[in-house]
Amino acid sequence: MRCPHCYKDIADDTVVCTFCGRPLPSGWCVGVPANLPSHPAPRATSGRALGARAIAVATILIALVIALVFALPRLDRTQVLRSDMEGALARGDFEETLAIAATLSAVEPKNASDCLLAGLAYEGLSRDDEAAEAFEQAIALDPGLHAPYARLIARCGREGRPKDAEAIYARWLAHNPGKPNFEAWTILKEIRATESGQPLFAGGQP
Description:
Elements: H1 47-91, H2 94-107, H3 112-124, H4 128-141, H5 146-158, H6 162-175, H7 182-196
């Protein structure tokens, strides 16, 4: 017959396997089929291994839950701050707009929209250099955002710098080939008309 543990051939009257040293089950004797597999059955995963895996999975799940708990309030806070910032700007409360912008920049990295709103607030306070810097930051973060180019071109028009206005619109075209910026183009046409002394006309391509 064969040992039920190591599947080695042993004598029929064996009580303890002479190969693996393990006792044979009661009643395991002559008559047990000899065509058992010639290799040991795969060992079941030990309780200790299963416990370790369960602990690892539980640790990962706990870490994910903690990350969500901390991330969701932060997301809610930034959304509230942006809403407050837009409201303050709409009310003409430019100092409050800038205060909220500073709080936002401390919570997360700046984005183009925040810089644009800050620039508009600086404009409202006649702090043109700081406004221009904020608009340039907005363009650096998102070269496809229309409004910062228009505000920079408008400043050039106020200060009598038509060449600089043309250069800013050329930057728009370089970053966004084939895409018109009607707001910036309209202001640029007004500057050209003022410089040429000719009445503004609706023609031309942005």
